[in-house]
Amino acid sequence: MADEKTEKFSFDPRSGFSPEKKTFHSLRHRVPLPPLSIPLSFPSYAISLLPSPLPHHSALIDASNSVSLSFPTFFARVRSLSTSILTHTPLRHGQVAFVLSPADVDLPVLYFSLLSLGVVVAPANPVATASELARLVRLTEPTIAFAVSATASHLPPCLPVILLDSPQFRSFLNDNLQPPPSTAAAKVFPSDLASIQFSSGTTGRLKAAALTHRSLVAMTAGFRKLRDGPQTEITFLSAPMFHSLGFFFLLNSVALGDTVVFIGGGRKATFSHTVQALETYRATQMTAAPPLVVEMGRSVEVLRHDLSSLRIVLCGGAPLSEAAAERFMARFSGVLVCQGYGSTEGGGISRMIDAEECRRQKTVGRLTENVRAKVVDPITGESLSVGQPGELCIKSPASMEGYVGDEEANSMVFDSQGWMRTGDLCYIDEDGFLHIVDRLKEMIKYKAYQVPPAELEQVLQSSPEISDAAVIPFPQEEVGQIPMAFVVRQPGSKINEAYVMNFVAKQVAPYKKIRRVAFVEAIPKSAAGKILRKDLIALALSSPICRL
């Protein structure tokens, strides 16, 4: 549903705001995209970016077992698997393949093979329950599933499954080294669906967002534009390969000729495993959710590792406090924390790209190339100007086509002019930097005031006594809702409820004060680092620790 038209209108070169259209324009150079009328899959686009002959350094390294694939081997397996899929399975262009597997060097091979054939990839969390998976299968209607022995039993019994850890699949990777015959492989166009990504579900039931090849190409084209030369990055991928962030950065890194290091084998990527992999493979950049950045900025263990190769941390998925970013950059001098903002539905929306922008850590960077935005008053629908907070709406070639099997949700997320509502309360400042205030659905309604939990969380996380914190609405009849804080103390800290309340009260307006506190061992978060507020709300309403 992205708007592909190029409109000519004037806008402020500093903020990107057009008074005429009441929209914000990206301050990045526009990146031309391949025409929609010419066949082009994302794998074809990726190969077009790579040198010929292919580079011989590693495309993928599994840090859990040191198994790696060079670029020539990677694409040889992609060709073999593509031919095998056409020969031995009913999968064809436009059909859906459900994928349920932990990270492995051959999972990206599967992704590229399916995408090259025009098969729609639907990767799901391998720890999802059988009931959760049954719903996702009903939504996506896959022809076949690819799983491993440990996950296959959770899938509905009526769905055919190919096991990725079986001798059959191993033969698929190596027995057909020729590309698939042109008579069997249909042409793939940029507007064809490439993937169905499941949204995080932090504010409700999982939804299935349909993304096209154009979406993936548009985001990679932007990253390619930023490259100064042929330098190869060694990227540590901390996000899971099934998650929209991990899925894209995996594809993007292969297209740019980088080496991707990840922790596979079904192992949980602990903090110790992560810093060891960063040191062993001399990673130059990493993707990281905020909790990892926070821990690296505070941990004593990390000081025992040589991370001198690291230059860039690409941080997204959830808000990162200014204090945490500054603490990290003070410890790792010369390493840039480049915050970005996006979503499963909207793709990449904003990011920081250089040292100057990375100094603006209260923001999530400037609008990404080819993105237009407007900020709308959530009550009146009026388009707002510079510095005025409202719901962020976007038009972008990277945004989804819509939710699969949910027309009601589509009618709510897209307006009549094709603008996609993000559900986030934001504003854009006079220098074109995007500020996230909070999720609209998560705003606390105290009397006649709206209180953003994210603002209070940043205040709490600035305390040296607090390791982590989350704020939720707690019902109170007299005022509607009050802000309640869940707090994780720093090791050895003895702070109490009064300390927390007073610490916040000194820094915020009276209506924003914390009025209840509970101390917990950890804050529940999604794979992308988003606070699972619904879990905390359930705990607050049921646990005796939360009684007055």
From TrEMBL:
Reactions listed under catalytic activity: (E)-4-coumarate + ATP + CoA = (E)-4-coumaroyl-CoA + AMP + diphosphate
Residue ranges occupied by any AMP-dependent synthetase/ligase domain in the UniProt entry: 55-403
GO biological process terms on file: phenylpropanoid metabolic process
Keyword Nucleotide-binding: yes
EC number: 6.2.1.12
Family matches, as InterPro entries: AMP-bd_C, AMP-bd_C_sf, AMP-binding_CS, AMP-dep_synth/lig_dom, ANL_N_sf
All residue ranges annotated as the AMP-binding enzyme C-terminal domain in the record: 455-530
Pfam families, per the entry: AMP-binding, AMP-binding_C
Signal peptide (UniProt feature, chain positions): none
Gene Ontology molecular function, alphabetical: 4-coumarate-CoA ligase activity; ATP binding; trans-cinnamate-CoA ligase activity
Key words of the record: ATP-binding, Ligase, Nucleotide-binding
Family: Belongs to the ATP-dependent AMP-binding enzyme family.
PANTHER family, sorted: 4-COUMARATE--COA LIGASE-LIKE 7, LONG-CHAIN-FATTY-ACID--COA LIGASE
Name of the protein this chain belongs to: 4-coumarate--CoA ligase
Organism: Vanilla planifolia (Vanilla)
